[in-house]
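Our preliminary data section would be incomplete without showing what the modeling component actually yields. Below, a chain of 486 amino acids is followed by its predicted structure, encoded as tokens that our downstream tools consume directly.
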Amino acid sequence: MIPDNTKKNPIIFYFLFILLSFYFIGYNFFIPHFTLLENEQNQNNINTVLSKMNTAIENIKNITNDYSKWDDTFNFINGLNKDYIYDNFREGTKTLEDLNVDFIIYSNLKQKTIFSKYSTDLPEIDKKLFEKEIFKRFEYETVLNTIFKYKSYYFYLIKAEIFKSDLTGKTNGHIYSGKIIDDEELKRISNVFEEIHISNEYSKKNGLKIKHEHLKNVKVKISYKNSYINSNIQFYDDENNYIFSIITKNNRSIVKKGKETVIIYNLIILIFLLIIFYIIYKNKIILEKYNKLLELKVKRRTGQLARTLRKLQEKNKELFTLAHKDYLTNIDNRRSFFIQGEKALKNSIQNNSQFSVLMMDIDNFKKINDSYGHSIGDKILIEFCNIVNKIIDKNTIFGRIGGEEFCILFMNISIEEAYKTGENIRRKCEDTIINIDNKKINFTVSFGLSERENITNIDKIIQQSDELLYEAKESGRNCIIRTSPH
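Predicted structure:
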């Protein structure tokens, strides 16, 4: 009840009216505003955690892909690289810690474990049952980036197919790798929540859906209890089955400060009204600064990852060139030539198509080197390869298999056409004059040409062509000796 003296002195009445009006206006205006800021900050914090989890999956994926596209790994699965485990995962090394994974499993195509290694930080689990569960659950997945539940534990799980580094041929197995998701891992990647832990607390209420590259089905449900804001981050698989939750808790410090500000504002009315707006302004600046810092960190991290990826791609190109190209002539080296030749011969046999081999050897090459020097010899080799590349088409396999020995594989053309191509190369080489230091140097080439017929081995057909090449050398060089026509 308002005292009677308010009737005599209306200033008190107006004061109370204004005080109550400012109280209700201030409360109804500022508190929702602080709640909104609190929600935005909470959502940013949630996105930060999910982004770091997504980055963890991406890092494990990149590491797994590196190991799975490695010739040493491919040979190890085939039993051809006995030193692989010693070189990479021997006892006493900290390979898993350096890779930031908790387990890695190698399996063949029959879902049999070839090798596995587990971090000492993992809880005690039956490793055979664990691997059996993974193989059973993801048997039909060729590649996988997901979150996996095993008993009461949760893991980032990556699966990749094992190929040769040049990605030729078929896969011969898979690599599974992962890292446990537990409270310690969450605390390591998050410092924005007062409390964060894993839970099976499931809520059917509709929540905010959030999607990241590898976390595609996440629902966030926010609740307010007393002076705390709680978030239930629920993870689902691709079939919308619930996996687990991450529960976060933060003090509602923004709203709490807002209420205190409103009380002070009503006690001092106009003076503290300015202070309240100043506090709001300062809070906005702090939040914007925090967001800018976060965006800057993300951009820097993205830039680092992009630079690392570019360097990796450049290094892969260099390794591919070293493994498959001749360093001098830049054509296929012996190893690459035989890999392609075996594949081409197999296709020829399966399709019953024509297949012929032309062996080539530069005449008197040792004499050229002895007379003019090895640098001149190298230039002749390069010029010879340039001549051949201009005459053959892109579907013809051309490689250097020895010092001055070269070989061409012809597919889907008759031996007569192959002979014409060889004769074209022979004449072009014979007519070519190389001018070096006022010296005119020419060279000739001898050839041996054979066709597949009933031969099923690339070495044998090349040996047959080599024998014909020897006959060409014995017959005076600068000619082509071919298998007798039927």
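Residues 159 and 176 are 5 Å apart (CA to CA). The two ends are 125 Å apart (CA to CA). Preliminary results of this kind motivate Aim 1 of the renewal.
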